[in-house]
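FAQ: What does a ligand-bound record look like?

Like this one, built around thymidine-5'-diphosphate:
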Amino acid sequence: MGITHSILITGGAGFIGSHLTRLFVTKYPEYTIVNLDELTYAGNLENLNDIENHSNYTFVKGDINDASLLKSLFDKFQFTAIIHCAAESHVDRSITDPLAFVKTNVLGTVNLLHVAKEHWKNDLEHKIFYHISTDEVYGSLGSEGFFTEETAYDPRSPYSASKASSDHFVRAFHHTYKLPVKISNCSNNYGPFHFPEKLIPLCIHNIINNKPLPIYGKGENIRDWLFVEDHVRAIDTIFHHGKIGETYNIGGHNEWTNIALVLELCKQMDIKLGRAAGTSEQLITYVKDRAGHDLRYAIDATKLKNELGWMPSLQFEEGLSKTIDWYLSNSDWLNNVTSGEYQQYYKGMYG
Ligand code: NAD
Ligand code: TYD
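The answer part, i.e. the structure of the complex:
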């Protein structure tokens, strides 16, 4: 029998965090799961409607920078583990407001590390500080090669620089204070509950509404896409079986140029929406490139596969089809997050 964890998940109302929270709350009813989320524009409790009444689940609205809140949660729930997902996550926003990324991704992570270290200092056994990170810390690839766990960090956007900095602090707390940490760096995720500022949900939303599909530059940049449920299965595997102090790359060997991906999306959506073939691709509009746009990301996940036996479960076309179907049958969710109605609701509800 493993230990019965009490886990603090940060950012559990966001895209990946909500899938992770759902998985842990339903798969491990004996665990206590506390979701601490500030509910920024990206955090949405509608993502968790189906589990909000589970007896092993508690939601707390709050900022990871709030040390006294963190201490009171540690006292109350006696956490044995943290899975840290909370972050500012959108590259374009980091270009216009880098300080917001330093505040949450760097200072917030260090605050969390510090409180965990203080609380666990007399008994580090069976504790886990699991930091969720991104492949973007490794920088940008040319047309060949893959990011491995040994690839030197070379972040090039304010977002990736803030995530790289947080990864360094997590490792520093392991080396300096023996804090039992794990880190995983994953490639681009897609799937249900993805906020429609990111490429795939933005294009799904715009195709439904016959709006332009903005392609940065020539659309030749390459991303390595992984279905979000495969990512959270990997997190589950690493959380329970990964080694303390280790880093694991997560990815599905699934590289697409942005233009090829959007054409596939258009093709599938024409069929699902009953439109003539070729209709949606007429919405494609080339726009000014993103500043400092990384050319290519591609993950080598051999370590995770060989050491822990994780494999992605879905082919991309199938995952994309599932994702489109989810957005088409959850138009209320999409309308709420795009109308900003849900943010007004939170203001009224939480101040
Ligand atoms: P997201 O933007 O959808 O969600 C982030 C969540 O964090 C939101 O619920 C938000 O309210 C919360 N949050 C933000 N600032 C906070 C603060 N100061 N205190 C408490 N909560 C706060 O992000 P995501 O796409 O789900 O990403 C989750 C994590 O996974 C991030 O650390 C990101 O860097 C990493 N990641 C994301 C991807 C991807 O493709 N989305 C890929 C690899 C790694
Ligand atoms: P995004 O979903 O923002 O993820 P990331 O920048 O973290 O990889 O963007 C994915 C790719 O799509 C990236 O190369 C930028 C590009 N892109 C567009 O071409 N148009 C858009 O409107 C967006 C949001 C992204």
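Follow-up question: can I read anything off the structure? Yes, for example: The chain has a mean pLDDT of 96.
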